[in-house]
Amino acid sequence: MFRKHTFLLILTVLFIGLVACGNNDAGANNQGNENGSNDDVVIDFMHLWPAGSSRQHNEIVQEIVDEFEADHPGVTIDMEILGNEQYRENLSVIGAANELPDVGMTWAGGFIEPYARGDMFTDLSDLVTDDFVPGTAEAYEVDGGIYGLPLELNITPVYYNQAIFDEHGLSVPETWDEFKEVVQTLVDNDVTPITVGNRDAWTGSMWYMYLADRIGGPAALNDAISREGSFEDPALIEAAAQIRELVEMDAFINGYNGLGNDEAKGYFINEQAAMYLMATWDLPEWTTNDDNPQEFRDSVGYFKFPTVEGGAGEINSYVGGPGVGLFVSEQSDVKEEALEFVSYFVERWGEMSVTDAGVIPATTVDTEGLDLPQMYIDILDDLNEATNLTLYADVQMSASTADVHLNMIQAIFGGEVTPEEFAERQEQALSDED
Amino acid sequence: MNKVMSNKWIIALYVLPSLILLGALVYIPIVMTGYYGMMQWDGIGEMNFIGLDNYVHLLQDSTFWFSARNSFLLALFSTLSLIMYLVVSLVLSGKIKGSDLLRKIYLIPMLLSSVAIAQLWIKIYDPNNGMLNSLLRTIGVENPPAWLSDRSTVLIAIFIAIIWQYAGFYIIIYSAALKGIPASLIEAAEIDGATPLQIAWKIKVPLISGVIKTTVILAIVGSLKYFDLIFVMTGGGPNGASEVIASYMYKEAFGRYNFGYGSALGFALLILALLTTWVIQKVMATKDDIQY
Q1: Is the dihedral of CA A369, A373, A377, A383 positive or negative?
Q2: Cα distance between residue A136 and residue A147, in whole Å
Q3: Which of A4, A239, B43, B140 could serve as A211's disulfide partner, Cβ 3.0–4.6 Å?
Q4: For residue B219, is pLDDT > 70?
């Protein structure tokens, strides 16, 4: 008797829960159908920039959508907006239920694979124009097709404090030997050369990735991860040995393995460290952010990661990665219009995002006549000359290999493994996956 | 009243709501966790039943045993620190000026959230600008350790923060228990010529032994499943040096999307905690409790 009642009660509770959670989806769908019954074409578009948390992004999207609707009579864009985390979760749920919107946003690398292989996203290879910075659209590549058009792009220059460099008579290094001389001079003068927050090991990974690129060329690391090559490539081992050499020179800030990225950045902002390797998402910190003293912001410069003598990498090759990109659903019943919308969006976004939101788009930008801080202009000009973009290693890898990679980065910085062991352990993790 | 209370329906009415909640939120998930532990599951896609493979793998997983070692070390430290808390409470329970104020001061860490405490200690342990190392440098230590980034110091550094975090909690429990001791007993002892030390050791401590046992269990079980400060302060690093079972479980499940193995870890943690509790109770069982 009791049991039956208990059971019923649990059922009721669960049912209420289900109904409450399910409500949102049902509402959105109904709306879509109602509009769809008109003769007009409705494109469902889902994005992740709510007005509250990303006002500038949100306004640009709204503007582009309004323009598109004005240019295309009879086409209506029906937007659904979610915050970043909810968006991520929602996409996997509606993806599994085969209810993706016609157009939506996605991330690059490992994230896109299940959707591409499951025939949920459309191959957008035909829409990839020369306007995209080399390497950005490729980050959305799965089995030869490109399943997303990138909107944002970040590259990682080495930021440096000009005041500190001037004080010690240093100039910007262009080769690895020059770089090591700079480091040595700073160490001799009791200045911390480099700040890195290697508790968040992806920061140390950037240093490693650049060395791997400069020594072995962009292919070395990419091939090792995609299993066309091996992690025990001599270039990849040599890159780890160079990290060891830097560590032994005391190039990195004391206690780097225990500092988070924000704490490490603090040392750079407090002018206690001369150099900081970080992505361009930090550009506002050095240009427009009033929380940092003007004097400091004026003294920040940047240089491209130096080349290694005899190495295969060039100076215009970058570590970096696109942020979000647009996908078109394979199941969409208005695919033609959706594809048109996507290319329209990418083009307009490229023109507006830098000036209006400080976001560097994945398409090349003509900097002439733009009203921007000089550092933005310089970075954008550099991007136009970029020959390669290597996506962050931990984004390229699957979650569990990335974990091994990041642990090994901490271990090589901390001197717990030799460069050979460093390579061997990652090779092991990568080959276990196959 | 008795008649009402003997009606099974009425009893059910009172008991059921919390029983259902407890069942739905605690007991059923425990069973489910054990069950998910037998799956190969990435949290989104389909589950594959793989029997006891996860549990077999767990027994051979050196990272698991290393994190279990850290968890037990933490349990040991927390238990030892109970002695310190007890001493403080005994001192505070004597007739000291300002003991009320001191009790409140000791309580403050308990009022802060774990993340705030973690941030505070990260700043204290900062290898270059931190309070601790600045202090060490002023007293002439040339190369003070880089606490959280050094494998050999990271554990002890975090343990100290955890012991500090829980001081208020245990001191309050001990103080409350000590308050419950009838003043007549203490007075009688004083008349008989007992020194304060004797009063504390021979009268007060035995009288609150029940509470002490409870706190030992709380401290040990709490340490085994401890997560927050470690997660925020080091994330288990550098290179896994400060990993504990709970942080390892979190990493497996939410970092590497091995929900099956993560569940197995969670279940193993539960079993370990149950076993340890049982052992402590056996060890600390006394024939009869001392009465007032």
Answers
A1: negative
A2: 12
A3: A239
A4: yes
| pLDDT for A12 beyond 60 | no
Number of neighbouring beta carbons within 10 Å of residue B201: 13
Q: Residue B39 pLDDT more than 50?
A: yes
A255–B251 C-beta distance less than 8 A: no
Structure ipTM:
0.81
Amino acid present at B277: T
Nearest CB among A10, A96, A411 relative to B239 is that of A411
CATH number belonging to domain A39-153+322-365? 3.40.190.10
Smallest CA–CA distance from B8 into chain A, residue? A2
Domains assigned to chain B: 37-284 (1.10.3720.10)
Q: Residue ranges per domain, chain A? A: 39-153+322-365, 156-320+389-433
Average pLDDT over residues A110-137: 85
A27, pLDDT greater than 60: no
User: Residue A195 in contact with residue A267, Cβ under 8 Å?
Assistant: yes
Provide the CATH number for the domain formed by A156-320+389-433 in this structure.
3.40.190.10
* Numbered residues of chain A with Cβ closer than 8 Å to any chain B Cβ: 2, 5-6, 9-10, 13, 92, 96, 114, 192, 198-199, 201, 253-260, 263, 267, 272, 399-400, 403, 407-408, 410-411, 414, 416
Sheet holding A192-194, edge to edge: A192-194, A273-277, A158-161, A300-303
Q: Do domains A39-153+322-365 and A156-320+389-433 have the same CATH topology?
A: yes
Mutate which: A198, A254, A394, vs B, most B CBs within 10 A = A254
Output the pLDDT for position A5.
58
